[in-house]
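hiii so my PI (J.) wants the whole complex modelled not just the main chain, which honestly fair. so below is everything: two entries, each one labled with what it is. i double checked the lines twice but i was tired so who knows lol
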Amino acid sequence: MREQRRCGGGRPSVRWSRWIAAFLEMALVAGIAGCGGAGSKQVKYPVRAVTLVVPYAPGGSSDLSARPVADAMKEILGQPMVVVNKPGGGGSVGAAEVAAGKNDGYTLLNASIGPITIVPYTTQVSYNYESFEPIAQLTDIPLALAVSKNSKFQTLKDFVEYAKANPGAIKYGHPGAGNIQHITMERFCQSVGIKVTQVPYEGANPAVAALLGGHVDATVTGTQEITGQYKSGEIRVLGVTSASRVDMLPDVPTFKEQGYDLVAGVWYGVLAPKGTPKEIVDKLADAFKKACQDSKVLEAWKKLYLTPAYLGPEEFAQRIKKDAATNQKVVESIGLSKK
Amino acid sequence: MVNVLTGLGAVVTPSALLWNLIGVVIGIVFGALPGLTATQAVAIFTPLTFVMPFTISMSFLLGIYCGGYYGGAITAILLRTPGAPGNAATCMDGYPMAQKGQAGKALAIAVMASWLGGELSALALMVGAPALSLIALRFGPPEYFAIGLLGLVCVAGISEGNILKGVAGGLAGMLLATIGMDPISGRPRFTLGIQGLMAGVALIPALVGLFAITEVLAKAEQMELGKKDQLITEYDIALPTKREWWESRWTLLKGTIIGVIVGVLPGTGPTIASWMSYQEAKRSSKHPELFGTGITEGVMATEVANNAVTGGALIPLLTLGVPGDSVTAVLLGSLMIQGLTPGPLLIRNNPALVSQLFWILIIANAFMLAIGLGAARAFPQILRIPMRILLPIICVLCIVGSYAVNNSLFDVWMVVLIGFVGFVASKFGFQVAPIVLGFILGPIIEPNFRRALITSGGSPLVFVTRPFSLGILILAGLLLAFILYRQRSGGVAGEAVKEPDMA
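here's the output for the full assembly
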């Protein structure tokens, strides 16, 4: 199915190709004439399908959150937006490819916080956050610190005090070394001066399973990963890292409420390669803003427990810069930075 | 009981049945094409189910799931090209059967065994879900390490002749699997600074390279040496006899149990299940030397196990919200799209859910059986194609397939390289199967070994003080002793019988 899309239609016969050539020529002439006449303000964009690279495998949060957006964008832009999955290297393979791609607005990255603001500091990759033009942040999912229902920790304070009294005794699972969950937890531990033992798992599901099975004392994941287990009472959530409480976990206090200054989250957003013309960036940002208000998109996100959080190009760029600086510091302090 | 029947009523509607059938067909096609798997099919079609009601969406996706775990057997048997990783072990006896002119029979056995495994695992889901989900919870890092080690013992079991070469191949496979991101430290290792290796050597290109490309090169060599183009024009489409089924009853039962349990365990899947089942069938057989030469029991063992994973892998998804294999990981998203949050509450809040899924699986497997038996008559025709035409087609399939996995040209080069290395290795008497098994088990053994030591504060006692871990390790030891004893007494192993030192 994906192949067909890329190949376009069938192969045109000789006669057809002449027609197409003639048509293209006309279009070119018209284009040049247009440039001369009305000034270069009016860029015709998009005139063909826009590719949205998802740097993870199909079926994950990144993929499922992007697909309804791509559908909505088709209606808004009048051109299809094609989702292409380029998984690998914790999102860095797809990110590197887009960073090196053409900055004509036809190749975009469905980025997330990890590959953009952490991976460039931990791993030798060919890009950093400055290789991109931020277009729009779409969603923002807070993290949760969860413990088993039988845990001795009732509140975040219990957790911190126990960790202070018993350095390294608490073992917490997270979805992978150098992931935002890991980095954020380490950042929290540094800020309150505690030491805990981290146990990396391969993805959020195994980390949650380890918590349910009692193989770790706590797990740090995105809130959407533990909502089901929380509602059934199998686990207790000590705190969420959002600025205010989360709709799906209304009884869970934030870190801030409990007196700890930690606000963090996993964002998903769209980036274009550096140097993409400002008109195109603005046009896309407007279109994504509309897509973020589309009822189908909102419904899909709600079901996936993703929190809509649109940010325009400037605000998004500021956030990325801030996140990158914070994460770089943590990465260096825990010895994860690249040589 | 009433629940079970109302579940049936909900899923036997014309549209649900139709979507189930469509799903099975899509699943078989995705399964059969190398590089496209059931996981990808479910992922690609999940966005389509945004607009479907629950029973239709699940009929469609579970149809893909069941068909996808069987479809790969078709190409594994006919072309020695595993369409999906879970069917790689089927190459072992399925392909030799086809070469003996029994392609139709091998395909029929594959689908019938798949059907049996699928149906029995659906039954396990229906009656045993709560109990079996406890197993998933008891498995921590030490237990995963132990089960990986148990699988590695199979390397010794499936090494023909020279155990030492088998162990060397297994270790080479494990080393190959260490390339990429270190799963514990999150840092790249052995990537030589090559960006494409950051994600490691992908499973499908490795399997396709080792099985298919190696075989294509071997066949091309035979043609070059002037051996006659072996056209298989006669083929047996006789179904296996009742007696053959009866003689294999324990293999089928054990394969189902292995498949269900491996399915229940998160992080493992049909690939491991089919190899373990194959090894166990060979170990307990009265004529182990016939395995690999094209016997029905070899195909039954692998295909019953990989499809038995389906029901098993749904168990932790439905009871704990933790998927049991890669397809159910995608199904987790599909359930959320339906507004259902997988987790312990799922069944409590939707008591009819399990019985509906049970019936959907029963029906999907029946569709799969019908289509598969038809395919068993039609597809052996492929073997009538002369080698000089068929071989290039296989190459194209492999290359397109390995590109399609990650849309990565790098993977295409990996297929070519691994295929060539595999061919050279086979010239020196190193077999493909142990390399593959090491490659699959390495990523279970290594990280869990390290994770277990992290959680125990560095004490290796953690492996022997936990009952499950200790039990599995003892089992692995006994199995190893049994294999070595038989090799020695049978005199097959020759001079190089050594205890593989891999604990």
